[in-house]
Amino acid sequence: MGIQKPSHTLAKIHTKALRTNRIHILFALSFTVFINTFSFAQVDSKTKSVEITPSLEKESIVAPNVNDTIVLPIEKSFVLKESDSTETDSIKPKPGILQGTVTSSAKDYNAFDRREQKAYLYNEAQVNYLDMEITAGTIVIDYSKNLVYAGRLKDTTGEYSQRPVFKQGENIVEPDSIIFNFKNKKALIFNSRTEQGEMKVLSKYSKKENDSVYYLGNMRITTSKNEEDPEYHFDVNKAKLVPNKKIIASTAQMFIYNVPTPIVVPFAYFPLNKKQTSGVIFPSFGEQNDRGYFLQNGGYYFAINDYVDLAVLGDYYTNGSYGLRLENNYKKRYKFNGRLGFRYENLINSERGFPDYSKTTIYNLRWSHSQDSKSNPSSRFSASVNLGSSNYYQQSQNQVNTASFLNNTLASSVSYSKTFNGEPQVNMSLTASHSQNTQTEEINLTLPTFQASVGRVFPFAPKVGSKKGIIQNINLQYNVRAENRIQTTDSLFFKSEMFDDAKIGMKHSIPITTNFKVFNYFSVSANANFDETWTLNTIDRFYDSTNSETVTEDIKGFDSYRTYNFSSSIGTTVYGNFNFEEEGEDKKIKAIRHVMRPSVSYNVNPAFDRYYDSYEVTDINGNSIREDEFTRFEGSLFGSPNQTYSSSIGLGLSNNIEAKVRDKDSTKTEPKKIILLNNLNFSSSYNLAGDSLRFSPVRMSGGTQLFDNRMNINFGATLDPYALDNNNNKIDEFNVKNGGSLFRMTSANFTVGYSLNSKGNERKNKTSDRSRIETLDSGGRDDDLFGQSQDFADQRYADEDEEEEEMGVLYNYSVPWNIRLAYAVNYSNAKRQDEISSHSLMFSGDIEVSPRWSVGASSGYDFKNKGFSYTQLRFARDLMSWRMNFSWIPFSTRSSWNFFIGIKANVLKDLKYEKRLQPDQRL
Description:
Blueprint: H1 20-39, E1 47-50, E2 57-58, E3 75-76, E4 102-105, E5 109-113, E6 118-129, E7 132-142, E8 147-151, E9 153-154, E10 160-161, E11 165-168, E12 171-173, E13 177-181, E14 187-196, E15 199-210, E16 213-222, E17 232-242, E18 246-249, E19 252-256, E20 259-265, E21 268-271, E22 279-281, E23 284-288, E24 292-302, E25 308-317, E26 322-332, E27 336-349, E28 358-371, E29 379-388, H2 392-395, E30 409-420, E31 426-437, E32 442-457, H3 469-472, E33 475-489, E34 503-518, E35 522-544, E36 549-571, E37 574-579, E38 589-605, E39 612-618, E40 624-631, E41 646-661, E42 672-687, E43 698-706, E44 711-720, E45 722-724, E46 730-734, E47 744-757, H4 769-777, E48 817-828, E49 835-850, E50 853-862, E51 867-868, E52 872-879, E53 882-889, E54 896-903, E55 912-917
Antiparallel strand pairs: 1-4, 2-3, 4-6, 5-6, 6-7, 7-8, 7-11, 8-13, 9-10, 11-12, 13-14, 14-15, 15-16, 16-17, 17-18, 17-19, 18-21, 19-20, 22-24, 23-24, 24-25, 25-26, 26-27, 27-28, 28-29, 29-30, 30-31, 31-32, 32-33, 33-34, 34-35, 35-36, 36-38, 37-38, 38-41, 39-40, 41-42, 42-43, 43-44, 44-47, ...
């Protein structure tokens, strides 16, 4: 038998005369050679899958065709189930070498070498096995050793591309090259890059032990967005990485722009948990001239569960002062959320034995709770509590928002309301409130206030159809209000003495109203109100001739009185439209619309003399001098009944002025409406039953918004028609008859609020959510006119997502800036004093002098007292991975400065430096 050379195009077989069966054997052998020749040819395919089935005995490899599936060496299992005794055997068979299907693909070629048992993939190669995925420029699969080799591509210029990417579950590693064993799932990784949360880990070599443990060597850790040239990093010799949990490292040294720093730690622990976890909160340190060195805001954070957390923080000063803070957040989606905080400080001034030595304790309790309206539409519970020592915000040495230093009042409210649906509807609410003046230290409490009302009932309304006429519109309802009001001082708060002067009462009210139309243009309403008041606090008053004084005794016990009154009103609406353009014209101002709503009301309040008594004032001889009247309900919770009959007519006029102007947008065909005067109101009254001074002063108020509602203007004035005598007392004579004007202005006020931004810069104030929440919880303003937070290190509750802006070569000539203004002036002339009682301007603003530098200030000026108010200067620098803040209060009793620099990433936010220092008060 002879076989032609491979260069020939056709194979020829030469045989001699043989017996018949030998010819068949030779033909079979020749066919086998022919098949084997083509079987070792190169196979090109972009995608091939590897199907693996567990087996127990070896089977030969079937050579695939060009597009066939590659079948690897596998173990064959028994097929005859009826004779298989292993099915009932208690010993389970060992699993196969591979537990799943290996699939591969490549852009240029995907070749399988049969002799070496290797598959070669080139250009955009990809291998998938179970939850593992490898993509790289080139990949080699060695089936004999169960290994996968992955690397980069190198072009003719020596540049590398298509870095391998190793994915397993949520973990992603980007090395220069990788060797992976798909049998034991171990791997060797060279120059790997992985991102764990905010941490970016670069390791020269790594060993993947299993799905949850990596051993790293010569590694670099940073949170910088620039991995190639980070602003800072930590060099670590050896480390153990547990993905999404922790990094335990040996000696770590900090480098800043590749310059080593003396910051070296013998070992390091980096938490990588995505969920909140408990841990230590590192304190800030500094110095105060009056209390020495201190540690502030150090403590422990308790991640109780997904709904509740707790932070316990403490402060300590070397002179013995200390503080404690508890901060709690809780939230349940679609149910409720809230914040609870308690602060206590024990402050020591000077040293024991010195005359200025003092020791004080202050505290503050804050609670904010809100309920989701969808959780229970028929009931609602809410709380806003801010109570404590009146001088807490003035004396506290560690508070999140220094703007609270200017607060003069503390207020709290806890309420629960319930609605009972039906016909009529019943509403009920229970409220506990608190109001505290920090200057006078006076505290007012209502523990509690109960209110209930029954919905309106129309007894004469038709069962079907609309209500028409005076009779059908008659309706009535029932209201009740009960209070337990307590007035005390800061020193008696939470003591039993605070309840000694409590006032308790209840007021029932039944209003009856109706309304109807007159001449189709006038709306008329009439109502009568019946009240019954219950009280447990009454008085008795008599004259003590022995001591020559009037004595008032408090009486505890139930008593009541009943009152009623009547009122009615009529009003209409008048529209006026003034056109400024004729047909065919296109003027800028097209029309002005004026809306007037005049109204006239009449009120009758009867006198209830039966609730008034009198006592006789005598001299030392018992002779009567005079009789004085009083009511036993004087000083009760809801006041005393009216003693003087009044019958008055009220006059009112409200105005609204709008304009239609040509829209700047030429594509719009309709004119644009702008408000010229949002409201302008006048009101006064005339007492028909009065014997003098029947006209009450005319009160005028108004307001408007300008510049796309950026500027709010409000004004008001009081105009009195009566004149003053030489002692500046009001007399029953019109001012115009006394040689003056028609009205005498006794008071006036004017306020302006304006918010400006640089052109095209619509960004809001950069006050952080944390600072804003602290300000509102403390009863402050919803802006930064009184300053911003100085606690830059406390970012546990609100971390703002920073939007990365693309920076050009040159900084935008339109420097972003914003400013907020609040101007107020008040005028008083009730007794010819003709003075400006208050005149001030508050302002706050920020400007970005460069893409990463911002400067801000909050201050004000008192034009009457000629001085600046509470002032704060702010400087902030964005150092990419770091942030730097400096805040300075140059003067006032709270003068201080605060410097902070720290890493922005949450995982390393405890790497910080903060310096707080008060200037020497003696200078």
